[in-house]
Each structure stands twice: as C-alpha cells, then as structure tokens.
Amino acid sequence: MKSVSLPESRTPAQVWNSALQLHNIPVINTSSLVPPGARVVVIASHPGDEVVSCGGLLQLLAGLGHPLQLISITDGSASHPGSNLWSARRLSVFRPQESVEALRRLGLPMHSLKWIRGGFTDNALAEQEQQLTQFIARYLRPGDVVFSIWREDGHVDHDAVGRAAAEAARMVDAHLREIPLGAWHWPAREQGLIPWQRARKIRLDSWTVARKSHATHAYASQLDGDPAIGIAPMLSRPVLERLRLPYEIVFV
User: Fold this and answer.
1) pLDDT digit string (tens) for 120-156?
2) Which molecular function term from Gene Ontology is one that the record holds (predicted)?
3) DSSP secondary structure string, 71-134?
4) pTM of structure
C-alpha cells in the first residue's frame, strides 16, 4: 500500500515533481468540468482529503455559485494508531472540528454547504465497499458532478472510496471526475501507471493557492504526527510543497 506520508529527511523523486507529462496536461476550465447550475458533490475518504486534493477547485466552484455537497466517509480517527497524544477518541472529535475550520478558511459558504459525515471505519473501507456504494448513492442525484479520489490511488481506503463512488455515480446517472491524491507521491518509476490521457489541469491563481495552503494548516493533528512512537506527519513537507503548485489535476 502506498502512503501519502514521506520521511522528512529525504525527498525522493516523485511523480508530482519529476514527470515530464505534467507540463503537457491540457488545461480545462470549470465550466467544462461542471455545467452551469449543476450541483457538485465532493467525496473525501478522510477529513482533509477534500482540501488537499481539490481545495482550489472548491473555491472556484463556490465563487461561481454552484451548490456544494461534501461527503466525509470516515472521521479520520485511525490516523495515529497506538498514539496517546492523538488517540482515536480524541481524533474522532478533533478532526471534524479541523475540517470545519479548514472549510471556513477556504471561504466556502458554510450556511449553505451540505456536509454529510458517513462514520465509516478507517482502514476498513474495502470490507465495507457494498455498504459504502449504497451510502454514497443515497446522496446523489442524476446530473450531479461527483469529484472523488481516483480508484487506483494506491491507498486501500482511497481506492475503495473511488470504486464505490464510481459505481454509485453510474447507478444514479451522475457524472464522475476522479482526483489523484496519494498517487502524486508515488516513486517516479511508477509514473507510467497514471492515466495521463485522462488528466486535465485546473489553473489556480496565487490567492487561491494561498487560501488552500492556509486551510490545510487547520489540520494540526496531521501536521504533528507523534514522534514518540515513530508516526510521521501525514501532511509532510513534500505534501505541503506540492500544495503550493498553481494548479490541480483531475481525471475526466
């Protein structure tokens, strides 16, 4: 299983900072991704995934007045196994609070944003995939544009959510867009596994990038890790560096 977190001491060549194909990805605008007036549903495997993967796009769509619905599949409480500092009980309360602050920092319309919390168990989503598909489908409508983690992202929970979202979208005749998250931190040698022909680039201005970075820093639990038991920050230095890029990538 590939991991988004990388050691702080060395940053090996990764897809996001080494693939020549990144420079040749066609640019797409929001109106091509989401028809005017369409509702947007963003599905996050864990709290924070929506900010890290498409925090810039969320800002653009909110600014255009698209109705937004966010579905958080888990509460992220298993991110620090064995930690006394960040116990599962503490995280089950703390991580949703971090998400509220992060979404506020993005400037999303909190009064109208519909936010569904699934309460599924971390690191066990593959075993719950059928229930997960049914759960997601319950909150989708025909014509929705659904943004979910890529079903081949390389993280067991991400992949399960991606597969479930794809099936749920098919069931209700919604439009699926997939977003790579952990895949950008694969070793460079695995870049051939990425479907570059489906990739599109969403340009972000400096203000949008800055707000996205500011929102990401609301996730204190993911910035800290727990050095006492060898848990590195999930939002490691390479991840934070990538978030400053002036674009996001989506698979269409």
Assistant:
1) 988 889 899 999 999 999 999 999 999 999 999 999 9
2) hydrolase activity, acting on carbon-nitrogen (but not peptide) bonds, in linear amides
3) EEEE--TTSSTT-STT-HHHHHHHHHHHHHHHHHHHT--TTT-EEEEEEEPTT-GGGGHHHHHH
4) 0.92
